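Quick review question:
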């Protein structure tokens, strides 16, 4: 018998501003010093691109017209849930499979309206400072891999 794991598809939205800083969110379910890239799970009959725009608007209030699409990662990141399984649409999911979408925020910061039932706070963070906020297991390494893929221009070469 094959033990097939079921992973819920979802997205993570890497959003940069005109200073090449990344938008991070601190969710209500996190401790205050843990942050993440905005995102969430795909709903039935929804494309991954639709999921990206819906999740961004639901979590942080940014509408599609304030986002310039940069690209989507070639491969998703998979992670297995450490505790209980997720039940959605009559399926029990063992983990999540996240595709990373890249966007440039072309709106004004005043457009950011947090969904207070889900998001406690947000921050714009430079690439070099991500290590202070992306503290979950493998979160920094996996996010960095996707930044290199979608936003290679934000990585400054080290000065010798």
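Suggested answer, residue by residue:
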């Amino acid at each position: 018998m094959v033990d097939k794991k079921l992973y819920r598809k979802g997205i993570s939205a890497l959003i940069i501003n005109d200073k090449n800083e990344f938008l991070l969110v601190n969710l209500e379910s996190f401790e205050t010093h843990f942050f993440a890239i905005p995102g969430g799970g795909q709903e039935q009959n929804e494309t991954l691109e639709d999921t990206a725009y819906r999740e961004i608007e639901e979590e942080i209030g940014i509408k599609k017209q304030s986002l310039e699409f940069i690209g989507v990662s070639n491969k998703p990141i998979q992670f297995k849930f450490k505790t209980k399984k997720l039940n959605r649409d009559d399926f029990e999911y063992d983990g999540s499979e996240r595709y990373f979408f890249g966007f440039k925020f072309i709106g004004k910061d005043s457009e950011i309206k947090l969904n207070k039932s889900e998001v406690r706070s947000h921050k714009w963070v430079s690439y070099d400072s991500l290590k202070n906020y992306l503290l979950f297991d493998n979160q920094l390494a996996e996010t960095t891999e996707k930044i290199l893929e979608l936003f290679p221009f934000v990585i400054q070469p080290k000065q010798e």
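Why it works: DSSP finds two helices and nine strands in the chain. Residues 8 and 96 are 5 Å apart (CA to CA).
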